[in-house]
Amino acid sequence: MSAKYYKDNNGMIWFPSENEEETIWRYAGNPLFDMPKMDAFWHICNSAVAMVNGEYIGVFRCEDKTGKPDLFLGRSKNGAEWELETKEIVFYQKDGSRFVYPYAYDPRLIKIEDTYYVVFCADIEGPSIYIAQTKDFKRFEMLPTGFLPFNRNGVLFPEKINGKFVMLSRPSDAGNTPFGNIYISESPDLVHWGNHKLLMKNFYENSYWERIKIGAGPAPIKTDEGWLLIYHGVQGTCNGLVYSFGVALLDLDDPSKVKCRAKRYLMTPEKDYEVAGFTSNVIFPCGALTDEQGRVTIYYGAADTTMAMAFSTVDKLLAFVKKYSE
Ligand code: BMA
C-alpha cells in the first residue's frame, strides 16, 4: 500500500494487506490529520470511533491552541476523512448543570444495547474515570461517578456478562504513573462498582515492551474463542517512554480469566508520525471497529499528535495471541 486512498467495504473502512504473513498493517493514508494545517487544534490523538447508521462518529481527544485537552465530536462518511466540531462536547449532570472539569482525555466509545457510552478520564482532583451516555450524539448525560481517583484507561465491555456491566481500568497516580496493572470490575447499574479483581500485570513473563505499565485499549472484541483485548504497554528507555500495543484473550463467560496473552507486542512505533511528535514513540489505541466478516480496524493516537489506523482480522489476532503466548 503506497498511495493514500479509501473505499467503502460494505460500510467499514478496511484494506487487505499486501503481505499475507502480516498480523497487523497500517493504513496507507496515515496519519489521519495534518496538524500544521489545522486552525482549531494543536493535537488530535487517542480517540474512539463507532459506526452509527452507516456513518462514522468519533469522540476525539483534541487540544485547542491553548494546549488544553478536551473531547470533541467528529463525523465521517468513510472513516478516514473527519469533520470535527470546534466546540467541545457538553456533558450534563442529572440536575441539568454542566459537568465541569479542568481537562479531559483518552475517551473510549462503547455501544451497549441501544446506548452509547463515553468512558473518559477527567482530571479533577487527580485523574479519574467518568462515564457519559448518549443515544443521539446530541445530548450527553453523565452517570454518577462510580470510580475513585486515581484511575485511567477505563473501558466497558460491549455487552453485559452474566447480567452485569463489566469495566476494565488502570489504577494510577496523579502524575505520569511509573506503574500500572489492569483491573476488572462489575456493576449491576454502571454506578455501583465492585468485585474488583486484578486482571493483568505489567511485565508479563519478562515482556520488556510492557515493563513499566499497561492499560486497556478499545472495548474488547467478542469472538467465539473469547474476548480479544488490545492493550497498550510501556517500556522505559534513556529517551523516555515507548508506548506499544499487544493483545490478550479473555474467557468469554468469565473475562476475569486470561486464557492467553502474547508475550511480544502486536505493534510498536516505527513510522515517522509515531516516532516523532509532541510525545515521541507513542501509539495509543482507543477504538476498534469490527464487522461480520471478522475484519478489524483499529484507531490509535500517534505520538500524542495525530490519529492513525491499522487493520487486522479476528482470525489473525487469535492466531497471534495463541502462537506468542507459548
Ligand atoms: C499517558 C496518557 C496518554 C498519553 C500517554 C503518552 O499517561 O496521558 O494520554 O498518550 O501518556 O504521553
Report on this model:
It is a single chain. This protein is mostly beta strands. Helices cover 4% and strands 47% of the residues. The chain has two helices and 22 strands. The strands form five sheets. It has a five-stranded mixed sheet with strand order 6-10-9-8-7, with no helix packed on it. Strands 15, 16, 17, 18 and 19 form a five-stranded antiparallel sheet that branches. Strands 1-22-21-20 form a four-stranded antiparallel sheet. A hairpin with a 4-residue loop joins β20 and β21. The longest helix has 10 residues. The N terminus is likely disordered. Bound molecules: beta-D-mannopyranose (BMA). The site of beta-D-mannopyranose has 10 residues, from β7.
Which features would summarize this protein structure in a list?
single chain, 326 residues, mainly beta, five-stranded mixed beta sheet, five-stranded antiparallel beta sheet, 2 helices, disordered N terminus, binds beta-D-mannopyranose
